[in-house]
């Protein structure tokens, strides 16, 4: 295990802001410094989302939309998480006017 992963892993298990958990989720989703593992990514993103992290909501939406680390693809679940991300100020889905319309545009672009 490399040093960066050890630091993120320690931080992810402490009661700290959600950013380390979201970062670790991204590492597992993308395979940066660790073997890709969608199930672990989903776990870390869920923990971060429970603390209101906009990035975590966004990635959970993309995982549901693409069927990664989830039982089945779900545009409805993706919309739910994109909506939460937009309301938390996530740049890719927020700030485009109507939040529901913004989330629908993201889903349509990715499908």
Can you offer a commentary on this structure?
The protein has helices spanning 3-12, 19-30, 38-49, 54-66, 75-87, 99-110. Residues 6-18 have low confidence and may be disordered. The chain is mostly helical and 111 residues long. It has six helices and no strands. The chain has a single domain (3-110), classed as Tetratricopeptide repeat domain (Serine Threonine Protein Phosphatase 5, Tetratricopeptide repeat, Alpha Horseshoe), CATH 1.25.40.10. It is globular and about 35 Å long.
Keywords:
111 residues; mainly alpha; Serine Threonine Protein Phosphatase 5, Tetratricopeptide repeat; 6 helices; globular
Please state the CA-atom Rg, rounded to the nearest Å: 14 Å
* CATH hierarchy class name: Mainly Alpha
Give the termini distance in whole angstroms: 35 Å
The fourth-level CATH homologous superfamily is: Tetratricopeptide repeat domain
Order of SSEs: HHHHHH
- Mean pLDDT, rounded to whole units? 77
Number of strands: 0
Shape, principal axes of CA atoms? globular
Treating each run of at least 4 consecutive H or I residues as one helix, how many helices?
6
> Any guess at the CATH architecture?
Alpha Horseshoe
Helix content: 55-70%
The share of residues in extended strands comes to under 5%
- CATH topology assignment: Serine Threonine Protein Phosphatase 5, Tetratricopeptide repeat
Please summarize the sheet with the most strands. Answer: none
Based on helices, strands and strand pairing, what is the structural class? Answer: mainly alpha
Low-confidence stretches: 6-18
Number of separate structural domains? 1
